[in-house]
Amino acid sequence: MYTPIASKVEKMFSGIAKKYDLLNHILSLGIDYYWRHVLVKKATKCNPKKILDLATGSGDVAFKLAKSLKNDVSITAVDFCQPMLNLAIKKQEKISNMDNINFIQGDALNLDYGDNYYDVVTIAFGVRNFEDRNKGLREIERVLKPGGSLFILEFSQPATCFRPIYFIYLKYLLPMIAGIISKDKNAYKYLAGTIESFPTKAILSEQLLQAGFTQSNAIGLTFSTVSIHQAIKAI
Ligand SMILES: C[S@@+](CC[C@H](N)C(=O)[O-])C[C@H]1O[C@@H](n2cnc3c(N)ncnc32)[C@H](O)[C@@H]1O
């Protein structure tokens, strides 16, 4: 049973699910492929055997992980929005050697898994939608093994020189293009709002430490419009 806010977010993603991949690639000019590539490259360096991909959506991070790590890895891919998971499952049926991914409906804020289990947790463009970020980060820290890593790919606050043009794009152009394609301008207005109010790299790093992680570092990509954080659980 989800809270009213979580249900609203879930409903919004259900509404845009069918156009989600297409809009991602159009709105980012295809750069989202590169962002997920960097995330997966960093995560695979940990040589994980058990991975949890949270807010997996249509599954692109999970598929990239499976492709990079071959078959001896098990990937649990969780999302609370069944229509998004249905897209992922359809893709899984079409791509060979993806049987080591298990797509499961669930809430990242109340994970159904024991403590100290996963080597790596990944989450791309999901943390921003958490109703209670601290609760979500603490939950991730709980299921990670000691010494395990969380990798977060998320929008961030861009470099100063890029801010004016970026926010004009976010506020006006993005909802307009998304509205035409998805017929749901409001969903993308909401998403643009969450991007604008999301913390800087330094603040998110601080929040990761507050949630119990022992180390946190971040890199910015594409004028720092997105960032990748790696946070490590204490041994
Ligand atoms: C912007 S999409 C990102 C999907 C995918 N990771 C990607 O890279 O394209 C955000 C996803 O997070 C999911 N989500 C948001 N809050 C969640 C929560 N508390 N538990 C599980 N999934 C959640 C939404 O249903 C949605 O599919």
Show the helix and strand layout.
Layout (H helix, E strand, L loop, with lengths): L3 H24 L3 H14 L5 E5 L5 H10 L4 E6 L2 H13 L6 E5 L12 E7 L8 H11 E12 L7 H20 L2 H12 L4 H10 L4 E7 L4 E7 L3
Parallel strand pairs: 1-2, 1-4, 2-3, 4-5
Antiparallel strand pairs: 5-7, 6-7
Helix pairs in contact: 1-4, 1-6, 2-3, 6-7
Bound molecules: S-adenosylmethionine.
Describe the protein.
The protein is α/β, with parallel strands linked by helices and 235 residues long. The chain is built from 8 helices and 7 strands. α4 links the parallel β2 and β3. The radius of gyration is 17 Å and the shape is globular. The mean pLDDT is 94. The structure holds S-adenosylmethionine (SAM). S-adenosylmethionine binds next to α1, α3 and β2.
Features:
8 helices, 235 residues, alpha/beta, 21% strand, Rossmann fold, binds S-adenosylmethionine, globular
Q: What's the short version?
A:
The chain has 235 residues and is an alpha/beta fold. It has 8 helices and 7 strands. α1 crosses α6 and α2 (31-44) packs across α3 (60-69).
Ranges where pLDDT stays below 50 over 5 or more residues in a row are none
At the first level of CATH, the class is Alpha Beta
The CATH homologous superfamily corresponds to: Vaccinia Virus protein VP39
CATH architecture: 3-Layer(aba) Sandwich
Estimate the helix proportion, in percent: 40-55%
Q: Strand arrangement, largest sheet? A: 3-2-1-4-5-7-6
Shape: globular
Compute the number of helices: 8
SSE string: HHEHEHEEHEHHHEE
Count of distinct strands: 7
